[in-house]
UniProtKB/TrEMBL annotation:
<keyword id="KW-0175">Coiled coil</keyword>
<feature type="coiled-coil region">
    <location>
        <begin position="91"/>
        <end position="132"/>
    </location>
</feature>
<protein>
    <submittedName>
        <fullName>Uncharacterized protein</fullName>
    </submittedName>
</protein>
Length: 240
């Protein structure tokens, strides 16, 4: 494990106990087949011949010839650690690839961290904007609720006023009818009063006339009485 907690790829496996030649060049043209007994093989010598290249025309062996010329194989068992140029080149290649991969991974980690930080910042900013909008919407909703409550109250008051107006309208209609009846009665009373006033005036005039006639009759009666006394004097009583 490295500092970035990235596991490095595994290195090449150490050589096995089987023949190194057959292990690496078993599938190439011109190499004899491996024994079928799975027994441990021993490589004591190896010799290049032109017949292999001439027969197969495989030029793939040429790139390994120089490495084998520099590598001396003795009478020994192929086991444990066996140094060779191919494995060293493979190790260097894997090391370089591993280093490049680690650098790429480190760069990717930095980029991912930057993206995470940017995402957090964006989410924080987005959350802040959402919170601001939510607060604004909450205030608007509260204002609307207050306005709605006021409208409901006004509607209730209006309904009560309408009910009161309806009741007052009925009472007004009733009182209007009563007033009409009273006005008719008043008109009739006024006419009766006028008639009575006229009758009273006529009665007063008749009474005055009657008083005059009565006085005249009294005067006539008095005169008649005087004339009667003159014409018929009172008899003188006779003394016996």
């Amino acid at each position: 494990m490295n500092d970035d907690n990235v596991e490095a790829p595994p290195m090449a496996d150490p050589p096995q106990t089987e023949s190194w030649i057959f292990a690496h060049f078993l599938k190439l043209f011109g190499i004899p087949n491996q024994q079928h007994s799975d027994a441990v093989e021993y490589c004591t010598s190896w010799k290049w011949a032109l017949s292999i290249t001439d027969q197969t025309g495989a030029h793939d062996f040429l790139k390994y010839r120089e490495a084998f010329d520099n590598y001396k194989v003795g009478d020994m068992e192929v086991s444990g650690e066996l140094s060779n140029i191919c494995e060293h080149e493979q190790y260097l290649m894997l090391r370089d690839e591993n280093k490049a991969l680690l650098e790429q991974i480190s760069a990717l980690k930095e980029e991912v961290q930057k993206l995470k930080d940017q995402k957090k910042e964006n989410e924080k900013e987005k959350s802040f904007l959402i919170t601001e909008k939510l607060i604004e919407k909450t205030k608007v909703c509260e204002a609307l609720n207050e306005r709605n409550a006021k409208l409901v109250k006004d509607l209730r008051i209006q309904a009560a006023v309408d009910d009161c107006n309806t009741s007052l309208s009925l009472d007004l209609a009733k009182k209007t009818k009563e007033c009409q009846v009273l006005n008719e009665q008043k008109i009739k009373l006024v006419e009766d009063l006028r008639i009575k006033i006229g009758v009273d005036a006529s009665n007063a005039s008749l009474a005055l006339e009657l008083r005059r006639e009565y006085k005249l009759l009294q005067d006539i009666n008095a005169k008649l009485a005087d004339q009667s006394e003159i014409q018929h004097p009172a008899p003188v009583p006779v003394n016996v």
